[in-house]
Amino acid sequence: MTTGDTLSRAMRERDFGALETVLAPDVVFASPLTSTVRFEGREEVIALFKIVREALQDLEYVESFAGDGVEALRFRARVGAEPIEGVDVLRLDEHGRVREMSVFVRPLPAAGALLAALAPEVVRPAGRWRAAVAGAMSAPLPVMLRRGDRLAAWLVRPAASRAPAARRRHRAARARSR
Description:
By secondary structure, the chain is α+β, with helices and mostly antiparallel strands. The protein has a six-stranded mixed beta sheet. Helices cover 53% and strands 29% of the residues. The longest helix has 19 residues, at 159-177.
């Protein structure tokens, strides 16, 4: 069983004791949501993963890749109603334990929903007012990003491909008004 297999099973089953066995004592986790926040040490990373796991529903790992001292795990889940997919990149130490982990997630609305779910909980140990500020700052993101995602899709589609659908809607509206 690889480090990635153990990590994915531990996350799916919420087995944080097993997770502890695959993390190096000085593990570093780089946040997928901000470049300024890193979690350092096994204790901090496990505390974060407990919060993350509460936010992710229907977590499933669908693919894994391995190279020399590196493993990657592709996953799918939901954050509330938002489907999310991502990749965990694990850099291993000489004992096969995770020494560095980076996570990449998509689509953008799901990343915003994840941030909104995690921010208040991650900040809560620093104080309730900080958690409230983090929650207030991140709460509008999912709605804004969902709307922006739809608008971007519309903007990217060439006008010619939108025209037939617009003509069908116009004809249907005229037919209803007769």
